[in-house]
Write a structure and sequence with these properties.
By secondary structure, the chain is α/β, with parallel strands linked by helices. The chain is built from nine helices and twelve strands. Helices cover 33% and strands 27% of the residues. The strands form three sheets. It has a six-stranded mixed sheet, sandwiched between helices. Strand 4 and strand 5 form a beta hairpin.
Length: 246
């Protein structure tokens, strides 16, 4: 068993089943990708693992280092070393970026300015700048990744890490993924992007709330080339596009 596993996970929201008997084992220290079309259940899986409000009424189990965490709060899961990088990063109005990064280190001594440089932000320009609405989406995404690097979590779930950012920022984010792996973090990339998938070592393909394939990145890459794989989904594979619409 890996550092994190979900076993026969089921979740219904608003009377609709979103996760349907999902079982995944994430190996310690690797970069994994969970891919699939919009609406496949990828972000819901991440929200369930981290324990967000509204995602706790599950069937099945979530195991971290071999122990069930399904009854733990989001704060308790965070203290164990699980963190989530949001598709739309949170804002902490008025808090200096350097202070935000230092606070993320949980009392450990870190070089916030060096971490900013690692994610492609000039520390002289950004160290004392506030985390607020004046930052672009790409800047906030980099600040969030800087905070995760400072945190040194055991598991980092990154939901659509390339969402709403420019090409240069994407490369910096990919560099941050490599840094997380180098410091021993198990990284789980939630994505429907081929470029993000290519940063992983192993991947799981989801569709309609199920895991329909898993294996090497080269294996799962065929999903992007063919836009679908044959399965028992109600949509006909030949008519199924990348956004999950017939």
């Amino acid at each position: 068993m890996g550092i994190l596993a979900v076993e026969n996970l089921k979740l219904s929201l608003g009377g609709r089943q979103i996760l349907n008997d999902v079982s995944i084992d994430f190996w310690d220290g690797h970069v994994h990708a969970v891919v699939g079309p919009n609406g496949a259940g990828k972000s819901t899986l991440a929200a369930t693992i981290i324990g967000l409000s509204g995602y706790a009424d599950i069937e099945g189990d979530i195991l971290f280092e071999g122990q069930s965490i399904r009854e733990l709060s989001i704060d308790e899961r965070a203290r164990k070393g699980i963190t989530l990088g949001w598709q739309e990063p949170a804002r902490f109005e008025g808090l200096p970026i350097r202070t935000f990064i230092n606070a993320s280190a949980n009392g450990d001594k870190v070089d916030a300015m060096a971490i900013l440089e690692q994610v492609g932000l000039d520390p002289d320009d950004y160290g004392n700048r506030a985390v607020d609405k004046t930052l672009s989406g790409g800047e906030r995404k980099k600040v969030e990744l800087a905070s995760i690097l400072a945190m040194k979590p055991k598991v980092a779930l990154l939901d659509e890490p390339d969402s709403g950012i420019d090409i240069e920022s994407i490369e910096r984010i990919f560099d941050a993924v490599k840094l997380l792996k180098e410091q021993g973090t198990t990284v789980i990339l939630i994505t429907h992007s081929l470029a993000v998938l290519n940063q992983a070592e192993h991947a799981f393909l989801m569709c309609h709330g199920k895991v329909v394939d898993k294996g090497s990145v080269a294996r799962i890459r065929h999903y992007f080339e063919d836009k679908c794989i044959p399965c028992d989904h109600k949509n006909v594979p030949e008519l199924y596009n990348i956004e999950g619409q017939a």
